[in-house]
Amino acid sequence: MPILPANRGLSTASRPKAQDLSSNAIARLAIAGLLVAGFVILWAISYGNSITPQGIVIHHSSVMPAIIPPGAQAYGRTPSDLGAWDEFHRIRGFGVFYWGHFYHLGYHYMIFPDGTVKPGRPEHCVGAHAKGFNSYLGIVLVGDFSSKSNPTGDEALARPTAEQMRALVSLSRQLRHRYSIPMSHIFRHSDIARTLCPGDRFPYGEFLRQIQ
Ligand SMILES: [Zn+2]
Q1: Strand pairing partners for 125?
Q2: CA 17 / ligand 1 centre spacing (Å)
Q3: For tag attachment on the chain, is the N or C end more exposed, with fewer CB atoms within 10 Å?
Q4: How far apart, in Å, do the first and last CA atoms of the chain sit?
Q5: How many whole angstroms separate alpha carbon 56 and alpha carbon 181?
Q6: Spacing, Cα 140 to ligand 1 middle (Å)
Q7: How far is the CA of 207 from the centre of ligand 1 (A)?
Q8: How far apart are CA 19 and CA 21, in angstroms?
Q9: Is there a contact between 109 and 119 (Cβ–Cβ < 8 Å)?
Q10: What is the DSSP code (8-state) at residue 57?
Q11: pLDDT, tens digit, for every residue of 43-98?
């Protein structure tokens, strides 16, 4: 019995045409090319926004400036949640793209009066909290600890709470250990810029003593 060709018996209509095959292949190649290009762009931008943390800069949040539109949740007062500050920094254009996300809050961590620590942007994402020191990790304590900008304590929390300081010390110790950060790379914002931040009521000496 003669061996028939494998495609014998298929009608002409059901046989894939060479033309269809080549257009399918081209479409697949185009999609693959776009995916690769997209990944390369994503990688390049994210790599450019990556840091190896060099140190720590401590901030206070102060009060929300009137830049936030009236009616917004945190207008004219100290915000009680991270979302309000995230929105404020979005308006100020602090956002960076990092592995599929836009991060707006310029700090890496935010510490609330009850000692709650909330992550802002990832530790390996460049900060937007201190000019020239954005390869340092920015930690902000909610409150205004300056006797100049907040003399009566009416504007915001006047000094860090015990819970905030405990959380700050614990977090700073972990970060120092994780990135081998020397004590000479622990700053207040006012040590590296013309600012009152984090205020004269921030117990810097005591903080340094506790994280050694
Ligand atoms: Zn600051």
Answers
A1: 50
A2: 67
A3: N
A4: 91
A5: 8
A6: 7
A7: 17
A8: 5
A9: yes
A10: E
A11: 777 788 999 999 999 999 987 665 444 444 444 455 567 787 888 888 888 889 99
